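Student: Please help interpret what follows.
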Amino acid sequence: MSAVSYEERFRVKRPGPGGLPAAAWPFFVATMLAAGIAAVAASLTQHGDIRWLDFVLLIVAGAVAQTLAIHTPANQVFHTGLAFTVAAALVLPPAAVVVVCIAQHLPEWLRQRYAWYIQTFNIANFSLSGLVAWGVRDAAARFGLDTGLPGTTGVAVTAATGLVFVLVNRLLLARMLKLARGHQLKATGLFDVDSFVTDLVLAAIGVGMALTLLIEPAAAPIAALPLILIHRGLVVPSLRALALKDHKTGLLNARGIEEAAREELTRARRFCRPMSLLMIDLDDLRGVNNRHGHLVGDAVLSAVADALQAELREYDLCARFGGDEFMVVLPEIGLEEARAVVDRIQTRIADSRVETSKGETVGFAVSIGAATRLDGDRSVDDLIGRADDVMYAAKREGSSRGA
């Protein structure tokens, strides 16, 4: 999949200026400055006249591709607009490349109503990636390598510009996701083989369109036709991911975690490895809804999800299992270690609060039951049943604890 921008579907815990998380603000400013300086520096030199027909075509086509973006539960946006930006970096002067990047994102911004800093970063990211790619093309031209002519050398140089664009774009986005959301590089999926190869294919189509525009412009629409197939290919995985996600918390839903938990149990049984499972019940969610309203109740659910994810490893599985129930699968974890995880979760939950529209702060508590795989377990339901028993015992005792 083509992950080239990001959107806001998360609760900012420590906002900085304008709502951007404080840790991400310096990188945001640095990216903006770098894009601006690169644009000015590149435009100060003489680089020929603008190809106006190409300019208009790339703006329109890129904007259309961007408005057809696919939004995923992982808070990323997938689209085919990258191909048109790569093409712009190959056939237009630097100032026009920046204009294409801006015009490409404006319609989507108006349609989706993102926070200002989200699409501003996306524009700066695309612009800087496009200008670096343009710089590769310009450097090649200075050494006498004409990217506008057919031949092995010209194709190799244009291919290099596409690769450079993809790398710069993803590295900048990965850093922003780390600072703004705390996502580690692996969790972003930006450099997964399937995702990265898809972007390389999009860049290759952009290279093909650029060469077509330079050699035979009338054939450019034919060069762009594969983008329709790629877009259709992005829709299906996105719909499948949506079907396995809980829309309120962003965690897996019951269907999503059951499939993954079965795979973990099968692996643990095959290699005789430990595995634990937590069942977590949010205490008195109905009372929170009655006293403060369902929006506060939803905020509490999200806060519990945040607390769980903060105390879990990247490869642990976490889901909203039902209305007020959560489930966690802990591979390679025995009972004693599971109890330590329970203690950490309870400590974090005890310190968590949500704020109502009236300025009130609302605390909450959970009851947790843990179960570890036994040799006789044949299904995930065996662990769920034992963890449920412990959880309800803890709830009856009023201890909001379980192990």
Observations:
- The chain has a mean pLDDT of 83.
- The domain at 3-243 is CATH 1.10.1760.20 (Arp2/3 complex 21 kDa subunit ARPC3).
- The longest strand covers residues 275-282.
